[in-house]
Amino acid sequence: MTPEPWRSFLTEMDEAVAGEVRFHCIGGFVVTQFYGLARPTADVDVLLMVPNDEQIQLRQKAGQNSALHQKYGVYLDFVTVASCPVNYEDRLTEMFRGTFKRIRLFALDPYDLALTKLSRNIQRDRDDVKHLAKTIPFDPAVLKQRYGEDLRPNLIGDPAQHDLTIQLWIEMIEEERAAAT
């Protein structure tokens, strides 16, 4: 069951679209609502919406400062710049299957989701990655391989900085795993 205020917000979004709309979701919404981290988040970060023809309407209806945002305190946020692993679409998992009539929300796989947080690398992102690493649990070799093959060739920003960050993240994950045993 989708918790409030998300259930009501998403139900009104569902009623606002004419046909099936698929959302590829990232960020704190996915980490909290799909992977179970208890922390506040106020937006659904949408990487891609298919079809895209209702994006302007949804932005007005459910985006930041919209009527739905005012009503529920949460909003839809279309991400305009993000580094994502190639072929992430092949690994999406549907969230809340069968709950809504027209909208379908898809979560990035946990490794891909973690890698979308690499560029920003703020404390909240590192905490999200630690949670994913414990919950899944992460195989550091898979994270490193996915980074090298699926993300690094398409990075936004300095690859050397990202190489350092992924190495620090892998060390962080291994330290967490060692502390848990």
* Percent range of helical residues: 40-55%
Number of domains: 2
Gap between N and C termini? 33 Å
Task: Characterize the largest beta sheet: strand count, sense, and whether it forms a barrel.
Answer: 5 strands, mixed
Low-confidence stretches: none
Over all CA atoms, what is the radius of gyration? 17 Å
Tally of helical runs: 8
Question: How would you spell out the order of helices and strands?
Answer: HEHEHHEEEHHHH
Tell how many strands the DSSP assignment holds.
5
Shape: globular
* Strand order, largest beta sheet: 3-2-1-5-4
Structure classification: alpha/beta
Q: In percent terms, what proportion of residues is strand? A: 5-15%
- How confident overall, as mean pLDDT? 95
Would you summarize the structure shown here?
The chain has 181 residues and is α/β, with parallel strands linked by helices. Helices cover 47% and strands 14% of the residues. The chain has eight helices and five strands; from the N terminus they run αβαβααβββαααα.
Give a written overview of the molecule.
It is a single chain. The protein is an alpha/beta fold. It folds into two domains: 6-109, no CATH class; 113-180, no CATH class. Helix content is 47%, strand content 14%. The chain has helices spanning 6-16, 28-33, 55-62, 67-72, 110-116, 123-135, 140-151, 159-180; strands spanning 21-26, 43-50, 75-78, 93-95, 103-107. The protein has a five-stranded mixed sheet with strand order 3-2-1-5-4. Helix 6 (123-135) packs across helix 8 and helix 7 runs antiparallel to helix 8. The protein starts with 5 loop residues before the first helix and ends with a helix.
